[in-house]
Specification:
Layout: H1 6-18, E1 39-45, E2 70-73, E3 79-81, E4 87-89, E5 93-94, E6 103-112, E7 120-132, E8 139-140, E9 146-147
Antiparallel strand pairs: 1-2, 1-6, 3-4, 4-9, 5-8, 6-7
C-alpha cells in the first residue's frame, strides 16, 4: 500500500484550501493555483452524506427554517494549513439562526460554489451531533473545522 508523504498532504491541502501551487509535480512550478480562486460552499447535513453513491452536496442537507449554506474563500485569509497536517478555518463559519426545530445535524461537507452542480468534494461526520432548536445559531468557531488529506 502506498500513501502521500506528510509534505504532499500539506501541499494538497494548500492547493485545495488556500489556492497555493502544489510544487514539483511535472516541473518545479507544479500544479498551478486557479486564476480565480473562488470559494468553498459549506453545508450541514442531517445524515451520512456518503451512504449513497452520489456526491451531490444537497443530499440530506440541513432544512431548519432560516438555514443557508455558508462560503469561505479559497485563500490564506480563509484557511490555514499547518505543519500539524491539518487545514482549518481562519474565521468563524456561522450559519443563520434557526427559527424552527428540532433538527439534528450529523455531517458537514464542502463543495465548489457552483449552484448548477453542487458537487461535494470534502465531507466528514461532526465530532458530536448538533441539535438545532429554535434560537440556535450553528457555528464552527475559528480553527474548529479541521481537514486532513490523509
Amino acid at each position: 500500500m502506498t500513501a502521500l508523504t506528510n509534505l504532499a498532504e500539506l501541499d494538497v491541502l494548500d492547493l485545495l484550501l488556500t489556492n497555493v501551487a502544489f510544487p514539483n509535480i511535472g516541473d518545479a512550478a507544479g500544479l498551478p493555483p486557479s486564476v480565480a480562486a473562488g470559494t468553498w460552499n459549506i453545508e450541514l447535513h442531517t445524515g451520512n452524506t456518503i451512504a449513497d453513491t452520489s456526491t451531490v452536496q444537497t443530499e440530506a442537507v440541513a432544512a431548519y427554517t432560516g438555514y443557508v449554506s455558508q462560503t469561505v474563500a479559497r485563500s490564506v485569509a480563509g484557511w490555514t494549513v499547518g505543519g500539524d497536517g491539518l487545514g482549518d478555518n481562519d474565521a468563524a463559519i456561522t450559519f443563520p439562526i434557526s427559527t424552527s426545530g428540532p433538527e439534528t445535524e450529523t455531517d458537514v461537507s464542502m463543495g465548489g460554489n457552483d449552484a448548477t452542480t453542487d458537487v461535494m468534494q470534502i465531507y466528514g461526520s461532526l465530532a458530536a451531533d448538533l441539535i438545532v432548536n429554535n434560537g440556535v445559531t450553528p457555528e464552527f468557531a475559528a480553527g474548529a473545522l479541521d481537514l486532513t488529506a490523509a
